[in-house]
Amino acid sequence: MKKFTGIALLLLTTGLNSFGQTAPRPYGVLPTQGQLNWQETGMYCIIHYGVDTYTDKEWGFGDEDPKIFNPSQFSALQIVAAAKAGGFKGVVVVAKHHDGFCIWPTKTTEHNITKSPYKNGKGDMLKEYREACDKLGMKLGVYCSPWDRNNPYYSTPEYVKIYREQLKELYTNYGPLFISWHDGANGGDGYYGGKREVRKIDRSTYYGWDTTWGITRKLQPNAVLFGDVGPDVRWVGNEEGHAGETCWATYTPHAPDEGKVPANGYVKDYEGTEGTRNGKYWMPAECDVSLRPGWFYHKTQDEGVKSPYTLLDLYYKSVGRGAALDLGLSPDPRGVINEIDVKSLTEFGNLLKQTFAVNLAKGATLTASNVRGGNKAKFGPQFLLDDSRYSYWATDDKVTTPTLSIDLHSPKTFNVIRLRENIKLGQRIEAVAVDAYLNGKWEQIGEATSIGGNRLIRLTQNITASKLRMRVTASPVAIALSDFGIYKEPVHLTTPKISRDKKGEISITTEAPVSNIRYTLDGHEPTSSSPVYSKPFTLNEGGTVKARSFEGKDQQSESTYVSFGYAKADWKVLDANAAGDEWNKAENAFDENTRSLYATLKKEDAQFPQQISVDMGKEQTIKAFGYLPRQDKQADGIVDSYVFYISNDGKTWEKVASGEFSNIKSNPIEQPVVLKQEVTARYFKFEAAHVIAGNGITAAELSVY
After folding, report:
1. Partners of 679 in the β-ladder
2. Which residues are CB-contacts of 384 (< 8 A; sequence separation ≥ 6)?
3. Rounded Cα distance, 417 and 524, in Å
4. Strand residues in 137-296 grouped as ranges (E)
5. How would you classify the pairing of strands 285-290 and 233-235?
6. DSSP string of 590-638?
7. CA angle, corner 187, sides to 49 and 111, nearest 5?
8. Above pLDDT 90, what percent of the chain?
9. Which one-letter DSSP state was computed for residue 504?
10. 3-class DSSP state of 91
């Protein structure tokens, strides 16, 4: 009897263990609670507002007078509300940018808001942002620039102490914070208390990041740390707002120089775009991009505000790839978000709500090819349709490529698929495909690689089907999938594309056929009564072309615009530093082809300045110049310090503009140089005083307006 009882107990225990199958073992490094909170946040905005708003610069030099900082209508509530209207869940306030001006009453420097006229020197904008976030249920984060072009102690150990004291003030007085944001700005020329010189630092060691991060951990333990090397959230490696098509949440940062320790501003940043499969750290990506072409407000960029559908596209390429979207907002000189920006944000927020309001897979019958331990109650596919990001369908350890069948019971029309993993168990799946049962057979309609905390597959066309199938095609371990959803993005027409050739002929095209394209040349938005585009037309004197697609009476696309300078058909190279091969010849600097490149020969002993001078063929009235850096994501030859000259005989030159192209490496858009007063000339010369990297200069395009 005792022997029988022992066998029975053994069988019973085995059965219970089988039924109560344990959860899958975690795979790789795992996120902290702070990182989970950040992943759920998804989108937030970074607010650039300071003295640069009034000097019309991207990077202040550090010698700005605080008296210029005097907004007439500053409203933290309006700014935070604009972000919330866009569906964003928090804001990161730029408490101090590279110019060193602090928008809170710090004790660490005189270069702060108390020396401005704002509220008679009694203002504290960080306090106002804190109160606005609390009122609107938004999260607050801060960015305090490590580079300070004002501080006389910068590049010495004394400044690092000052910087850390600034962080302590922010952490102590304005919490709770959800993120402490750090960039890679690492010195250069500046005011530095009147020294007006270039100061360099050891980018690997100067800030002592481990010690600095320790301050955050102590004073704001729930805040994640963002930077080129995290340690919690990494920079994606571009300021275009998108992660890689494959984007791993794990990452191993590397220094540019062998044997050195990577640090903010000292890392192979391009590796951050995709991350590292099985990387050393859980360090997901943040995709930062500005709503406008620049990070600070510039009146000339009012027409460049990103449209709602452009923002939606960025959403798919950031949040939809497991990263976060950090959108730059730029209050105007009044101290509020401009009406143009608010309109775009609000419409984007509405688009998001419309798209993801209803999961069309709700109510479906899900059938999995395998369920872990056969325990459907604990690991079954039904958890894919609940509202939790952490309940999940799991498979047995040996089953790594399972199939899920989805019976929708009736035809559903959709164009977006959402997948999520339970990232508390790591990032596991490496590839997945989705099929629809169409015309009596299975057809693949979408696929993806990395899943992680969130993956959106945006289909190229609407799919109507009543049966779907998801296939995990690659995974090193058992899966732990937490979400499956299908959604319908509202119908819209694609925005036209506007281009001009060297002869000055404007062409307007669309990706798909439409009833008609209408355009304007006077700055007004195209309407159903605007001229219809039928064939290319000439625009020799330059101007702004706006266009919009129309379909029937009710449908129209968003409008798009391009500003052109003078046509370049008669332009000739007067003189230039020696160019390279045919592809890099000097004429490429004005061929209206942004993919071609003017590049000087690379010589180890090359000297600066280097220049190219151009004969425009006749006298022109000049109000501004434009320099478009190379568009191939390479840094060699990108000019960051320039001089423009004009001449009427091609021999005697007059300097009309000089300065720096701030942040041009990370944000390689056309750099406008507006003259203080218009001039008349037949010849101009572009001189590169300094480049970001390399021994020569490069230019995708030079323009005159």
Report:
1. 622
2. 366, 392, 393, 404, 481, 482, 483, 484
3. 38
4. 139-144, 179-181, 188-190, 197-199, 224-227, 233-235, 250-251, 281-282, 285-290
5. parallel
6. GSS-TTS-EEB---TT--S-EEEEEEEEEEEEEEEEEEEPPSSS--BT-
7. 45
8. 85
9. -
10. strand
Q: How far apart are CA 683 and CA 619, in angstroms?
A: 8
- Residue appearing with tokens 């390279």: 580
Distance CA 665, CA 648 (A): 33
pLDDT at 511: 76
| Residue 399 tokens, joined | 């089953």
Confidence check: pLDDT of 579 > 80: no
Cβ within 8 Å of residue 548, ≥6 positions away? 495, 496, 517, 518, 519, 525, 526, 530, 556, 557, 558, 559, 560
Measure the CA–CA gap between 575 and 600, rounded to whole angstroms. 12
**At residue 19, does pLDDT exceed 60?**
no
Closest Cα partner for 684 from 705, 704, 662?
A: 704
Question: DSSP code of 102?
Answer: B
Mean pLDDT value across the chain: 93
Among residues 416, 417, 419, the alpha carbon closest in space to that of 430 is found at 419
- pLDDT tens digit sequence for 243-291: 999 999 999 999 999 989 999 999 999 999 999 999 999 999 999 999 9
Q: Would you say 447 and 431 are in contact if contact means Cβ atoms under 8 Å apart?
A: yes
Nearest CA to 35 out of 324, 303, 430, 417 is that of 324
Per mean pLDDT, which range of 164-168, 436-440, 558-562 is the poorest?
Answer: 558-562
Give 169-222 pLDDT, tens digit per residue. Answer: 999 999 999 999 999 888 999 999 999 999 999 999 999 999 999 999 999 999
**143, two tokens:** 């960015």
Strand segments, DSSP code E, in 330-402 are: 365-368, 393-394
Nearest to 273 by CA among 242, 227, 311, 252: 242
d(CA 286, CA 273): 9
Buried b (16+ CB within 10 A) or exposed e, 234-256: bbbbbbbbbbbebbbbbbebebe
Lowest mean pLDDT among 49-58, 134-143, 579-588: 579-588
Could you give the residue ranges of the DSSP H alpha helices within 148-291? 157-173, 209-219
* Measured CA angle at 148 (ends 147, 152), to 5 deg: 130
Rounded alpha-carbon distances, angstroms, from residue 540 to 342, 503, 564, 569, 647: 35, 8, 9, 9, 21
Helix (H) or strand (E) holding 129: helix 125-136
User: Where residue 581 falls among pLDDT bands split at 50, 70, 90?
Assistant: low
Distant-in-sequence, close-in-space partners of 120: CB < 8 Å, separation ≥ 6: none
pLDDT in tens, 99-158: 999 999 999 999 999 999 999 999 999 999 999 999 999 999 999 999 999 999 999 999
Answer whether residue 6 shows pLDDT above 90. no
Question: Nearest-CA neighbor of 247 among 480, 88, 454?
Answer: 454
Q: Among 681, 657, 682, which residue's Cα sits nearest to residue 671?
A: 657
pLDDT band at 577 (very low <50, low <70, confident <90, very high): confident
Mean of the pLDDT values across residues 398-413? Answer: 98
